[in-house]
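Exercise: predict the fold of this chain.
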Amino acid sequence: MDSPSKDALIAEAGYLVAFAALRVGSLQDAEDLAQDTLVAAWRQRDGFAGTSSLRTWLTGILRHKVIDHYRSLRRTPTRMAVALGGVEGQEGADPLDALFDSHGSWRAHPLAQTAPVERASREASEAVRHCLEALPETWRKLFCWRVLDQADILDAAQAAGVTSASASVILVRAKHRLRLCLMKEGFLG
């Protein structure tokens, strides 16, 4: 299998940002994680064997980035702003440099470039994102790890910082609150 092209990686940027945003609750952190994922994928593109889809491969990389993100938050109680100096090596050497400005932000947000055909899907995704963001942070983390990522209940509970005994109760409450929110948004009857 040929290694993925720059365009193929860029085409997945919007999905990666949305995937990360549901898990970390911050669009800025999600964009940073998606950027880190694309840079790592570009550097390791020759390692893509093609035994799975490109999206699956990128999602696997992103999941590890999300886990590392939460680990770093546990190690450092306060978050410090760090000025991003760019990718290692010469300025402009990496083709993905064109996607991000000198501060590490997207030059053009990938979600803003969706086709009109995808509007209904995007609206549903926005409603789900809105409803997930309305959940308490612990509930959102637990729901994302257990339901969206299909993690074991013990792993999901540990990632969310709750006991496994309370995780089941929290999941039921989170699902109920999500259902009510999506009904209010007009996506469930």
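Check your answer against the key: The two ends are 45 Å apart (CA to CA).
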